[in-house]
Automatic annotation (TrEMBL), chains A, B:
It comes from Natrarchaeobaculum sulfurireducens. This is tRNA (cytidine(56)-2'-O)-methyltransferase. One of its GO terms (molecular function) is hydrolase activity. It holds the Pfam family Trm56. GO terms for biological process: tRNA nucleoside ribose methylation.
Length: 183, 183
């Protein structure tokens, strides 16, 4: 997010049809909650289009890339890797360490979110396996809570560039305004 | 959650097939992140079964109920209503007020999460329309961040009753232990 070291999200696994919306929601959540980019599996082209369409309309910067080799991304990542899993260490126990690496150490963070089954390599490749609770729930929920805690709520204040519209927060009702082109 | 006033979640709308996993993830997220119960539409019986199965195995208390009349639930709710919507007031601006009502005022909270289209009645019925960002993303992500902030992380420490298994947090790997019956 802006002046901080990069935060990227890697979505592992995608079963066309069944996972369409989950993968899309991973991408949209990554964008809305302050990540700089997301990699999704190369069979999830529809999700890529949806997230890019939202970025075109509501702003960025945010990039979505397809990958046919998540292993290469894990191997080549120049920074720290956080794998979100219900089997991992408790987020409340490790978040300070991750903060320190990211903000004080200037380390980019790759956040890995799986679908049903994640290979053991990923657990080994990760610097931290982190449980947002050790309960089964949702990779989208886990990602959201993780990012909100990583950025300590600052992601809620971010500005969006090159948006063509903006939602105006309201007590009741819906208001969307066009955004003047600021360059 | 335990000694606090009740927090319930109401899921509006469910298109069978298309919304199966989103509705299930709303239910599982509500459970994992400290809500006491969830209502889901009566055509989402499959999601109910999945969430109940997880509760049987990993513990509770947590209840899942089907409803054919979300309007009646909104009308009859004895407490405050928070509707999560990208058009609402910014969570960072209203969360203190909601905290105060819930904890100091002892008010039960009903958190309403929609699917695609939410009728205007809901905006009017709500005490707060709240945006977890004013960006389009995921009702599951919005619910997760909202609950984590409402409970200020205490939901991560909750104990589970009547579980038959428990995940043991680990740096690397997966460990699930049977739980002795504590009654």
């Amino acid at each position: 997010m802006h002046d901080e070291p990069e935060v990227a999200v890697l979505r592992l696994g995608h079963r066309p049809g069944r996972d369409e919306r989950m993968t899309t929601h991973v991408g949209l959540t990554a964008r809305a909650l302050g990540a700089d980019r997301v990699w999704i599996p190369d069979n999830a082209g529809q999700s890529k289009e949806t997230v890019e369409d939202i970025t075109d309309r509501f702003g960025g910067p945010f990039s979505v890339e397809l990958t046919d080799s998540p292993k290469a991304i894990l191997r080549d990542w120049d920074g720290r890797i956080v794998h979100l899993t219900m089997y991992g260490e408790r987020i409340q126990d490790v978040e300070d360490e991750i903060h320190t690496a990211h903000r004080d150490g200037g380390e980019p963070i790759l956040v890995v979110v799986g679908s049903e089954k994640v290979s053991f390599d990923v657990y080994e490749e990760a610097d931290w396996n982190v449980g947002v609770t050790n309960q089964p729930h949702s990779e989208v929920a886990g990602l959201a809570v993780f990012l909100d805690r990583l950025f300590e709520g600052h992601e809620l204040e971010r500005e969006w560039a090159n948006a063509d519209r903006r939602v105006v927060p309201m007590e009741t009702g819906k208001r969307v305004e066009p955004v003047e082109d600021e360059g």
